[in-house]
């Protein structure tokens, strides 16, 4: 029997690193998962173990080339953004993969903001809220200012997805989905690097920009396969929706962060929107995607632990609590609800758990509070756009019936769907280079939808 043509996709998150093989119908036919212990940088701050990650890529490639049932036609990558790998002339890392959660020196950020028009102008032009190390361009600026000798050794700074591509292709490229994601590098109005990037000499450390759907010849030994340039994971997760649906929509991608992505809204960011954590991403075809973000996945995790501890329950119980409209109506009458104003955290952290009849009632209130936040955040990218008719929700909350029913109640004029798709960002990376490995048409049933009235 002949070997099945497949694409290999490395999907690298902060916690889990996964490898998938997809067949030409985008079914997962092979899967591996790994977690690495973090290491620390020179300041003792936790960071990615780059050596473990690099060896894992090579070991995984060797493993899949030994599988006789599959013929690897291409490889691509989706990975978290906001982190640079600094490479010398020989392609070796010369610095840690600094953690985007590492505190950023205030004097450095103030210095660059003041030199280039002030905080508001700088963040508006780069469509990047002021996020410290999460603005990865500022990580490069920090290296130049604080470690000039090390900075001098850097030939290219590659975002993580492009570094993974470099490991297999040997070629240095940048990619717009990584550059355009709250990096403070890109001037969205003029469609080029912001002038601070040239002025500070940072542009000399940035590799040429390749198209997101470009492929490169492979350097790592194996059969004659193509190597994609890699994608920022949030932008990769949007690709299946852009390919599958033509009518304007919003995608709420839920996980640790809950991000409302509107590919049909390019209206300029206002000062108010920037202050409310709105930004632009850039989708794989190069156009801006207006987005708003909440840290509600993380808040949900913490508050579920609090409920479980108070009511002496196992936290696992709350993974499948059914929606009860009667409880919601009671809660709305019994307790003060959110005002409808924007907030980054819900009211639930300040609520007295002993006021609730039981853990199920408390959990309904948590979801009510979190959904209220979500509605306000999503409305920020809904206004000023083309007429949106649908909202798709993927990730963890798409499986939460309370969240989905409350969202449907809040947007009665829109169609609300829970979208189920195995590994959206990995499939997006595979779809991006479909033409280079797949002889079939893109299937129409990649995304499974459940409608909430």
Secondary structure layout plus pairing:
Layout: E1 4-12, E2 17-22, E3 28-34, E4 39-40, E5 46-47, H1 50-65, E6 70-79, E7 84-87, H2 106-115, H3 118-125, H4 136-146, H5 148-153, E8 156-159, H6 160-169, E9 174-175, H7 176-179, E10 186-187, E11 192-193, H8 195-199, E12 209-210, E13 215-217, E14 226-228, E15 231-232, H9 233-244, E16 249-254, E17 258-262, H10 271-275, E18 278-282, E19 288-294, H11 296-310, H12 325-334, H13 359-382, E20 390-395, H14 401-410, E21 415-420, H15 424-432, E22 448-452
Parallel strand pairs: 1-6, 6-14, 6-15, 9-12, 16-20, 20-21
Antiparallel strand pairs: 1-2, 2-3, 4-5, 7-8, 10-11, 13-14, 16-17, 17-19, 18-19, 21-22
Domain Carbohydrate kinase FGGY N-terminal: 7-194
Protein name: Carbohydrate kinase
Keywords: Kinase, Transferase
């Amino acid at each position: 029997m002949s070997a099945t043509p497949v694409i290999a996709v490395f999907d690298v998150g902060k916690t889990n690193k996964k490898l998938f093989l997809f067949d030409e119908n985008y079914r997962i036919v092979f899967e591996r998962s790994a977690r690495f212990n973090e290491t620390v940088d020179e300041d003792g701050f936790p960071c990615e173990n780059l050596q473990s990650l690099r060896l894992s890529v090579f070991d995984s490639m060797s493993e899949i080339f030994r599988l006789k049932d599959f013929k690897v036609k291409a490889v691509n990558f989706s990975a978290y953004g906001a982190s640079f790998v600094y490479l010398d002339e020989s392609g070796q890392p010369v610095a840690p993969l600094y953690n985007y959660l590492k505190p950023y020196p205030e004097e450095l950020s103030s210095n660059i903001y003041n030199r280039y028009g002030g905080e508001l102008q700088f963040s508006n032009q780069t469509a990047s809220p002021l996020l410290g190390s999460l603005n990865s361009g500022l990580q490069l600026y920090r290296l130049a200012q604080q470690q000039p000798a090390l900075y001098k050794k850097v030939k290219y700074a590659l975002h993580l997805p492009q570094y993974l591509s470099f490991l297999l292709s040997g070629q240095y490229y940048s990619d717009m989905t990584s550059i355009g994601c709250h990096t403070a590098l890109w001037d969205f109005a003029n469609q080029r690097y912001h002038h601070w990037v040239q002025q500070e000499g940072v542009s000399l450390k940035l590799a040429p920009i390749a198209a997101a759907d470009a492929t490169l010849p492979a350097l790592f030994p194996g059969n004659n396969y193509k190597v994609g340039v890699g994608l920022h994971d949030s932008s990769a997760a949007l690709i299946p929706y852009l390919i599958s649906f033509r009518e304007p929509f919003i995608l709420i991608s839920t996980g640790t962060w809950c991000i409302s992505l509107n590919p049909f809204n390019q209206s300029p960011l206002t000062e108010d929107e920037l202050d409310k954590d709105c930004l632009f991403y850039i989708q794989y075809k190069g156009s801006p995607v207006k987005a708003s973000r909440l840290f509600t996945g993380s808040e949900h995790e913490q508050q579920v632990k609090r409920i479980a501890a108070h009511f002496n329950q196992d936290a696992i119980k709350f993974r499948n609590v059914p929606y009860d409209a009667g409880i919601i109506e009671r809660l709305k009458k019994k307790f003060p609800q959110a005002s409808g104003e924007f907030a980054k955290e819900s009211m639930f952290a300040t609520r007295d758990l002993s006021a609730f009849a039981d853990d199920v009632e408390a959990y309904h209130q948590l979801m009510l509070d979190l959904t209220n936040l979500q509605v306000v955040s999503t409305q920020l990218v809904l206004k000023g756009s083309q007429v949106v008719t649908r909202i798709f929700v993927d990730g963890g909350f798409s499986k939460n019936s309370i969240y989905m029913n409350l969202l449907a109640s809040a947007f009665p004029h829109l169609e609300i769907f829970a979208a189920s798709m195995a590994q959206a960002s990995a499939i997006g990376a595979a779809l991006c280079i479909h033409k280079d490995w797949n002889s079939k048409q893109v299937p129409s049933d990649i995304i499974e939808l459940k409608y909430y009235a």
